[in-house]
Write a structure and sequence with these properties.
about 0% strand, 2 domains, Hypothetical protein af1432, 9 helices
Length: about 210
């Protein structure tokens, strides 16, 4: 079965049958990453590999404060390979799917070696930017019990950044750095556009906090 829509349906059925309690890495996240990957694609990449990697890249995702966090993509790649094999996915495509999943992670810092891996990485990082990035950032911060910002120094102007304690610090420690990591030209353009949303939010927040 090579039909993309049929495989997509099969992947979504699997995910609905195995739901996650993590609202930042649920089926809607996978669907959005796949949508963005399609937009970033030049058309020459293997579409089924992209689809599988997009839908299973976060099938394992440890919380940001979990000591196993940097292993998330490695463990996700192993689990995804097992799941895909059980679904009858083409064996010759599994190696690249596994690489795409391993290399998508920011914390794992694994170099991308295929065009498909570059697209999956860019598409996933896009989820941390723009309006959806704002929503997901504060969802994760709330689930971890973080403070929104430091009352004394909200923008870390006289202290070290600590995104394990303050949600706003994550913008400076990671999110605003993402556009420079994009591998595709379309990804760079879209990431810069989405980063402007985050910067505008921070400017508005600064204005509201000024007394």
């Amino acid at each position: 079965m090579e039909n993309i829509e049929l495989w997509k349906e099969q992947f979504e059925n699997y995910l609905r049958e195995h739901p996650t309690s993590d609202g930042s890495h649920d089926i809607s996240h996978f669907q959005r990453v796949w949508s963005v990957a399609n937009k970033l694609s030049k058309g020459s990449e293997d579409k089924l590999t992209l689809l599988a990697a997009c839908y299973f890249h976060d099938i394992v995702s440890y919380p940001k404060n979990d000591p196993r966090r940097s292993r998330s993509s490695l463990d996700a790649a192993e689990k995804a390979t097992s799941i895909l094999s059980s679904l009858g996915f083409p064996e010759e495509k599994l190696k690249n799917v596994k690489h795409c999943i391993e290399a998508h992670s920011y914390s794992a810092n694994i170099p991308t070696k295929t065009p498909e891996a570059e697209i999956v990485q860019d598409a996933d990082r896009m989820e941390a930017l723009g309006a959806i990035g704002l929503a997901r950032t504060f969802y994760v911060a709330g689930s971890m019990g973080l403070k929104l910002f430091s009352t004394e120094d909200p923008f870390a102007e006289q202290r070290n950044l600590d995104d394990k304690k303050y949600a706003i610090d994550h913008f400076y420690e990671k999110l605003l750095k993402l556009p420079s990591t994009m591998k595709t030209q379309k990804g760079k353009v879209e990431a810069e556009r989405r980063a402007k949303v985050l910067k505008a939010f921070l400017e508005d927040l600064r204005a509201e906090l000024v007394t």
